[in-house]
Amino acid sequence: DSRSDVNIYEYVEDVHYPVDQKSIDMIKVVAALHAKTSYNKEVREDKYKEIYDNLKENLEYYKGNYDNIVSRIEEKIFMSPSEYLFIRNSSKLKNQIGFCETKLDDWYDKVKDKRETRVSVIHNNLRLEHFLKGSKDALISWDKSTIDSPILDIYNLYQREALNIEFGSVLREYLHHANLDESEEELLFIL
Question: What does pTM read for this prediction?
Fold first, then answer.
């Protein structure tokens, strides 16, 4: 304390920064990245068919999986409270899968003849801990970055952080700053 030639600063482990505000600030940086680096790229004829088939296969898997769970539960004499709750809501799950199938079919009808898609630089590993707030906001951990559809960043962020943040406001903020076309928005919501 008595030395004048040394500056001593407190070590700060973490700054209190509300998670929802951090997610909004991060998504603005992501939207700017996508907007500044996007361009249209020619795709092969079956690109959209491949996406459609993969998503359709996933929906069929979930439908079959839920049917198997329902069958196993219905075979029991007595259901546990969680099983009873699952059975009561199983029709809602089936309706949601049916809704997604309908939306997926509508999306595919719109894009099946397209021969180009919009791509941009994507971080491909978005997490709240990969965002630094400062005089210039920054994304870190770029080891998985690539050039692909910008909706993949949003989808991956949803998968990783949806339980930790108010994702509806994050999505609204992204859509406000990004220029997704109708088919991109539809595919994002289907995912």
Answer: 0.82
